[in-house]
Amino acid sequence: MKPISDSKLEVSRTSARSRESRVVAQMTVSVGSHTLRGEESGPNLFAAIDAVTDVMDRQIQRYKGKVYRSANA
After folding, report:
1. Which of 32, 44, 56, 63 ranks highest by number of CB atoms within 10 Å?
2. How many Å apart are CA 15 and CA 23, to the nearest integer?
3. pLDDT digit string (tens) for 45-57?
4. Contact present, 43 and 32 (Cβ < 8 Å)
5. Which DSSP helix (H) or strand (E) runs through 24?
């Protein structure tokens, strides 16, 4: 598997009326020619980052599974 070549975490505050979506976290990870991206919102900084980290963890596990399956085929 190729190493991570670039990663970014962007956090922004919105003026949403809903308390649950006031902070938006976007994470982008580049692995070779693939880009994995996730975006989640939350009521505060920590909740938004935790949510986007969970999304990215699932995407990375799925990507790793595809890479290992194609290497063994």
Report:
1. 56
2. 9
3. 999 999 999 999 9
4. no
5. strand 23-31
